[in-house]
Specification:
Layout: E1 2-6, E2 13-17, H1 25-41, E3 54-57, H2 71-88
Parallel strand pairs: 2-3
Antiparallel strand pairs: 1-2
Amino acid sequence: KIWCFGPETSGANLLVDTTKAVQYLNEIKDSVVAAFQWATKEGVLSDENMRGVRFNIYDVTLHADAIHRGGGQIIPTARRCLYACVLTAQPAIMEPIYLV
């Protein structure tokens, strides 16, 4: 299940839900998508757009109280988690080459 493309809902990055039977996941979907858009717009290495990155959501553990599942709690946490995933994958900065 593809949740969104990014940045700006039309980029070359994917956020994919591969979970099975996670409670309250629909409640945080908008917040996770917002964090994904923010993370792909301002990449972890040089604050530039990310390109060609796919994020799979395998499992989610959420608090039972709804107050702890708000956007103020989920967006920064999901953004930091996405940044950690990128850094764990050993990213590289590529030099642009233009044909003249």
